[in-house]
């Protein structure tokens, strides 16, 4: 089949720098004991980077598997021929569970209710399934709470087809300079591990650390670590003191260039009125791609010029002021999110909308192609 440059199908495209991903990977590895293995999180389309693309690259780098948020994400990776291990950290419900088992996904059990689903499953099938046990060590979201640990371990012992392979928890403030609560979470988790391993009479794969745990809490490293945002190059509040580099670039095409006169208005609701003669560019990206209306005061890079957005961001396009750019050319690229030091970053956009890079990146819509470079 003929291949088509994604830029010809859509006017904005995300490119992923595989060399920078490998650098972030090596940096992560250098922080870990040689016995710890890495299970990168590729949920939410790999934080907007493209799940299958990232899953394939990290597998080659040596990932023990990838983590996803639910069976939908797991099955979608299998549908696109991902052969590596997938740990599904999301909810279990009746038929979905069998679907996950069919696809050789490692499940997780997070509550006595989910344990019951597994027990019921055994009356319908004798197929073995693998799972990890989720411990609530203080986030109060999901996982067995301390008063359930013994009961859960005893019930798990009775599962004839279920194979408990691992045990894990999630840290809720691993980037906080005050490390007190994280240390407490790690202590509680270690206690849970002792109870489960004693009752199950087996050594489980233990994991706890997200990016913040990897960077700031060596005692959280255990057997596996689960980095998300660090892999993608946005590890801490500003990340500047670390050598992690953003791996994603988001570019869009200049669709059109035109002159407008003083008094002309631009875009929906005519919120911008020109006070002078201006050169206006139309860029092929909008909130339908995840470039939100709240980014209206962001800079957009074009040949080293920081362009201002003019008027309201539309669904598929936005307008920029090109007045000071010599000879702008239709078809050239602008940078919405870059990975060089002077280009706009996901942090810049996050600050404009009072959020974090995680949200900016995961909002890049699936209609924007992801390309590995
Ligand atoms: C269970 C679990 N582990 C690991 C991660 C990765 O976190 P981070 O992106 O902060 O490294 C997440 C992200 O939310 C998560 O939910």
Notes on the protein architecture:
- The chain has twelve helices and 18 strands.
- The longest helix has 21 residues, at about 180-200.
- The two termini are about 20 Å apart.
- α8 packs parallel to α9.
- The chain is elongated and about 80 Å long.
- The chain is an alpha/beta fold and about 375 residues long.
- β14 and β15 form a beta hairpin.
- It folds into two domains: about 20-225, Alpha-Beta Barrel (TIM Barrel); about 250-370, Lyase, Ornithine Decarboxylase, Chain A, domain 1 (Beta Barrel), CATH 2.40.37.10.
- The strands form five sheets. Strands 1, 10, 13, 14, 15, 16, 17 and 18 form an eight-stranded mixed beta sheet that branches.
The biggest beta sheet is recorded as:
8 strands, mixed
N→C terminal distance: 21 Å
State the share of residues found in helices, binned by percent: 25-40%
Count of the separate structural domains: 2
Q: In the CATH scheme, what's the topology name of the largest domain?
A: TIM Barrel
| CATH architectural category of the largest domain | Alpha-Beta Barrel
Low-confidence stretches: none
